[in-house]
Amino acid sequence: MTIQEEQDAIVEEFSYFDSWDDKYQFIIDLGKGLPMIDPQYKVDENLIRGCQSRVWLHASVEDGKLWFTADSDALITKGLVSMVVRVLTGHTPKEIVDADIFFIDAIGLRSHLSPTRSNGLLSMLKQIKAYALAYTLKNQTS
Amino acid sequence: MSHTLNIYEPLSIEAIRAEFPILQTTVYGYPLVYLDNAASTQKPSVVLEALDEYYKTINANVHRGVHHLSQLATDAFEEARRKVAAFINAAHDYEIIFTRGTTNGINTISSTFGRAFLKPGDEVLISAMEHHSNIVPWQMACEYYGAKLKVIPMTDRGELELDEYSRLLNSGRVKIVAVTYVSNSLGTVNPVRDMIRQAHAAGIPVLVDAAQAVQHILIDVQDLDADFLVFSSHKIYGPTGIGVLYGKEAWLNKLPPHEGGGEMIKTVSFGKTTYNDLPFKFEAGTPDMSGAIGLKAALDYVDSIGIDRIQLAEEALLTYALDALSTVPGIRFVGEAEHRAGAISFLLGKHHPFDVGELLDKQGIAVRTGHHCCQPVMDRLDIPGTVRASFSVYNTPSDVDRLVAALVKSGRMLG
């Protein structure tokens, strides 16, 4: 699936929920899912510090594609982070750099992308794009 | 100061609430429950009208123009200064300096006091429960002048260790003490009057950060014998962007000006500038006239109710809230000082404060989550942050009931 299609799928999944509590319960349950990051990568060097919660992000490259794993100490952030990873992992750096991330807005969680909320999600997206950009530049120069 | 009201006459909170337009709003379809007052209070109509009136009728720069409007604006601005002086019982109006807020007031003192008095090896004493605004400016001054920042420790209950304070105070090297009256993250009320008395016995001046006190407790700077005291207008129902630095005349006269330009000069030549008298020496540039006038309206409003009555009503509400919150499954209070005001900090089970705050928000309840700009407090207690409900005169038991119900639901959702 492309980044666009993956986001469309998430938006559709959320369209089944009528109330805010159902949406949040879904995100919380996502957050409670399996560990999302190998403990060896849950270290300070991979930490993205938000004002409210912390996000760990690890990136690796395989077959010219970027693969991400992540975690957060807050459940709601963790649920959102898992969706961001689902959307962006396994794509080429160029696809990631060019990606327009709209699903968080579309499922009614726009505030999570606002700098004032600063819960780490925006910082995480910036970090993912920064990784992708760095790999793109590295490939251009090598 | 207004002491004529019968403090035992109960407040009509519903009548008070009607004065605050924003309290009539809804959030996500729920009537707003605003419990983030330690961050900023809402504004009554009289304050909003004072701001509107200022811009519609007397807006002009102060202290400069000979024209009619400038005179009116100057009169209103200086009237605001007199109001502040009376409100905190300063001995002189010119001991009131208008600042941009608490942080700006502390920075003004840390940098000017530092320049005048701090030398390598000197010590500045603060407490373990300061917010960043009463840590970082002193850290900067200490770094610059080679002084040391010393910290009064606190107990697990969130009270200062006063024996340790006495010991630290008597090192012979402490040049100034800067301490908060009420902790923004724990709600602890510190015994600043006694702390000041002790510091003075050792010949040390004290700055009191009253940012979280002035809206809850009667402040009398002469009774406290504070050398400096700071607060922000927006936490006491006034507009944002303006605050107050009180300083004893003798101390303010010993300090150099903070910023240059505007009202702080007497004469300027390229060779030499002479500085203006108090309070203008510390008010460089065009001051926040509308802010000062809005602050006056806010203090008039507080006086119209009576700070004593506000304090009683808030204490009753805090007691109610502590009882009601203790019924929430898994709740753990953070900071259990005997004397407290304004705020209750807590954690819900093992849940991250952010998750709890997020779910409360979705139920129309505004609280603060995180470290409340008090990272050292959170490090001391080994927690990532807290959920903080902070109260104001317009909060009601039904706000507390809504909070309790919403917390129970949040706890259930988070599992």
CATH superfamily of the largest domain in chain B: Type I PLP-dependent aspartate aminotransferase-like (Major domain)
CATH class of chain A: Alpha Beta
The figure for the number of domains of chain A is: 1
Strand content of chain A: 5-15%
Question: How many separate helices of chain A?
Answer: 6
Specify the helix fraction band of chain A: 40-55%
Low-pLDDT residue spans of chain B = 1-5
Question: What's the SSE blueprint?
Answer:
The complex is a heterodimer of chains A (142) and B (415).
Chain A lengths: L2 H13 L4 H12 L15 E3 L4 E9 L2 E8 L2 H14 L4 H6 L4 H4 L14 H21 L1
Chain B lengths: L12 H6 L7 E2 L2 E2 L1 E2 L10 H14 L9 H20 L8 E4 L2 H16 L5 E5 L8 H10 L2 E5 L9 H8 L4 E7 L11 H10 L4 E4 L11 H4 L3 E5 L10 E5 L1 H6 L10 E4 L4 E3 L13 H17 L1 H19 L5 E4 L8 E6 L4 H9 L3 E2 L1 E3 L4 H7 L4 E5 L6 H18 L1
Parallel strand pairs in B: 3-15, 5-6, 5-7, 7-8, 8-9
Antiparallel strand pairs in B: 1-2, 4-10, 9-10, 11-12, 13-14, 14-17, 16-17
List keywords for this structure.
heterodimer; A: 142 residues; alpha+beta; Sufe protein. Chain: A; 3-stranded antiparallel β-sheet; 6 helices; 49% helix; globular; B: 415 residues; alpha/beta; Aspartate Aminotransferase, domain 1; Aspartate Aminotransferase, domain 2; 7-stranded mixed β-sheet; 4-stranded antiparallel β-sheet; 14 helices; 17 strands; 16% strand; disordered N terminus; PyrdxlP-dep_Trfase_small (chain B); lyase (chain B)
Report on this model:
The complex is a heterodimer of chains A (142) and B (415). In chain A, helix 1 crosses helix 3. Chain A has one domain: Sufe protein. Chain: A (Alpha-Beta Complex), CATH 3.90.1010.10. The mean pLDDT of chain A is 88. Helix content of chain A is 49%, strand content 14%. Chain A is α+β, with helices and mostly antiparallel strands. Chain A is globular. Chain A has 6 helices and 3 strands, in the order H-H-E-E-E-H-H-H-H. With 415 residues, chain B is of the alpha/beta class. Chain B folds into 2 domains: 13-36 and 307-414, Aspartate Aminotransferase, domain 1; 49-303, Type I PLP-dependent aspartate aminotransferase-like (Major domain) (Aspartate Aminotransferase, domain 2, 3-Layer(aba) Sandwich), CATH 3.40.640. Chain B has helices at residues 13-18, 45-58, 68-87, 102-117, 136-145, 162-169, 192-201, 221-224, 249-254, 289-305, 307-325, 353-361, 375-381, 397-414; strands at residues 26-27, 30-31, 33-34, 96-99, 123-127, 148-152, 174-180, 206-209, 228-232, 243-247, 265-268, 273-275, 331-334, 343-348, 365-366, 368-370, 386-390. Chain B has a 7-stranded mixed beta sheet, with helices on both faces. Chain B has a 4-stranded antiparallel beta sheet with strand order 13-14-17-16, with helices on one face. In chain B, strands 1-2 form a two-stranded antiparallel ribbon. Chain B is globular and about 70 Å long. The N and C termini of chain B lie far apart (51 Å). Classes of the chains: A alpha+beta (142), B alpha/beta (415). At the A-B interface, helix 2 and helix 3 of A face helix 12 and helix 14 of B. Chain B: Belongs to the class-V pyridoxal-phosphate-dependent aminotransferase family. Csd subfamily. Chain B: This is cysteine desulfurase. Chain B: It catalyses: (sulfur carrier)-H + L-cysteine = (sulfur carrier)-SH + L-alanine. Chain B: Its cofactor is pyridoxal 5'-phosphate.
